[in-house]
Amino acid sequence: FNNKQLVGKKVVVTAGPTMEPIDPVRYITNHSSGKMGYNIAKEARDRGADVVLIAGPTNIEPPAGVEVVRVNTTREMFDAVEKHFSSCDVLIKAAAPLDYRPEKVMKEKIKKDSEGMEELNIKLVRNPDIVSHFGKIKGDRIVVGFAAETNNLIQYAKEKLIKKNLDFIVANDISREGAGFKSDTNIVSIIDKEGNIEDYPILDKNQVAKIVLDKVCTMLNIKS
Ligand code: C5P
Q1: What is the pTM of this model?
Q2: 67 contacts 87 by C-beta, under 8 angstroms
Q3: Ligand 1 lining (C-beta closer than 6 Å)
Q4: Residue to mutate, 28, 40, 90, 93, ligand 1, most ligand atoms under 8 Å from C-beta
Q5: Annotated catalytic sites, by residue?
Q6: Domains in the chain and their CATH numbers?
Q7: pLDDT average, residue stretch 25-35
Q8: pLDDT single digits (tens) 118-142
């Protein structure tokens, strides 16, 4: 068994949420912790890959020996992926980028001063879907997505797999105990483009990372 299966391969991993500013003091974000992506980056490093970890705002310590690129907004994450995409062999999109951003970022702090300000509307506009963009131009690279859902898990995940042109998707039902954003564990199903579905029990995120990279390695072997 060769545990350095990824020597000579460049693996780009995205992790964590993104954040979008509203004004100089406020922003919107989500509950992604970055743990899943960080575990994947670490496992890819352990298998000998050159790893670029593109991370949104998180509090966790990045693994040593990987190149860390820090970003805030979804568009910054897009640009960072673009910079590394052409030279990579594998893109794993474990991040949860914000799908929408405030149309305008106020230069000054929004005040609640006067009477009659009982409502405040902030118009949001769509961000680019990063994995979808790069999935469509992937060539022979392997592109892996995640799907965090609260209902119709397998159906939604299958739709994303096809729409975003992924090699496989890791689906997790975030409404289940022991799965999802903040947890150290996850409960996943892996669906590939051949239509195979593998359901896994509750596992530590480092175990899930091994399963994801086993699948990546199998696919790379088939190609070479
Ligand atoms: O948001 P959604 O459930 O469609 O996310 C599924 C996959 O798409 C994830 O792998 C996520 O990282 C990716 N995604 C992305 N850019 C976005 C939104 C989602 O790359 N703006």
Answers
A1: 0.94
A2: no
A3: 74, 93, 95, 97, 99, 127, 129-131, 145-147, 160
A4: 93
A5: 30
A6: 10-103+123-223 (3.40.50.10300)
A7: 96
A8: 889 999 999 999 999 999 999 999 9
